[in-house]
Amino acid sequence: MAYSDKVVDHYSNPRNVGTLDKSSTEVGTGLVGAPECGDVMRLQIKVNPETQVIEEAKFKTFGCGSAIASSSLATEWVKGKTIAEAMTISNTDIVKELALPPVKIHCSVLAEDAIRAAIGDWKAKNGVTETAEVAVAK
Amino acid sequence: MTNGDDVSTPPQSAPQGADYFSVFSLPRLLDLDMKAIERAFYRRSREVHPDRFAQASAEKQQWSLEQTSLLNDAYRALKDPIARTEYLLRLEGITLAEDAATADRQEKKNVPPELLAEVFELNMQLEEMRMNAQMGEDDPQLRRDLEQAQAEFAGQFAGIEAAIRTEWGKWDAASNSDNSADKQAAAERMAALLDKRRYVRNLVRDVQQALGN
Description:
Chain A is an alpha+beta fold. Chain A has helices at 5-12, 65-78, 83-86, 91-98, 105-126, and strands at 27-34, 39-47, 54-62.
């Protein structure tokens, strides 16, 4: 099975690899994993407290090419979005953009989970209630 | 225990109407007397062996081949403790994470957060170890940390296998008393343990590779 060009591109030139200060109140950290393939993914966002815009996003993923590409793309997409907008990113968008085959769909699910976990962490730190969840429905 | 899931076994779909337990006239229990099964296997093997049907009709010869092959598959599936547990859970319709990975949108498997954090940290160290190796350097502290992690995960691995055996007893007891709620609960705990076992086994393998032993 060949990887799509976009997967190869993200895999060979991953965007936004790195770490943000986990202890900062502006930073939300999501750590998710898939035991079946041994993938672990950490996605972090830095949110402007005034505007709720995600100004910075970093990731570090151990796993297959599709998992790395999915999380790389996720950081690209969340940057510049508000928290509510970022919550609408779904794994099917990632599947389409990267042309992931069915056996790799779980990688995109993991990336979506990572975004949500990071946002959840940021909300918990900042005492934001879950009313913004409404924005998830498309 | 051996790594039964490393052995390539044929597709584990039981033949119609028969499962590998029934091949040996056994109920679906896990704590089996393997000595007795081994004796039954050799006895049955002799009975259906193709050599005995060399002069028989083509139909009989075909039957002998099929029986021999079914017997071999059944013995192989039941002999290894982990393969046997996985086989029984699949028979009972339990989805293992391994099977769910290819599903369109799998059920969420809950991985304990502390295990994830531990795995992430370990992967960071493994990456550093590999980079050092590429540069031809060795960091003794890092090596010690990884060796410690290796011992820890090996211990966890043994603990998981012991826990699976404990669940066998619970499954067998619930089966004997026909308690389907307890059976289901034991089956789910075994599925979770098997998932964790796979995860930890991969970690042990990765650490071994990075340490070069």
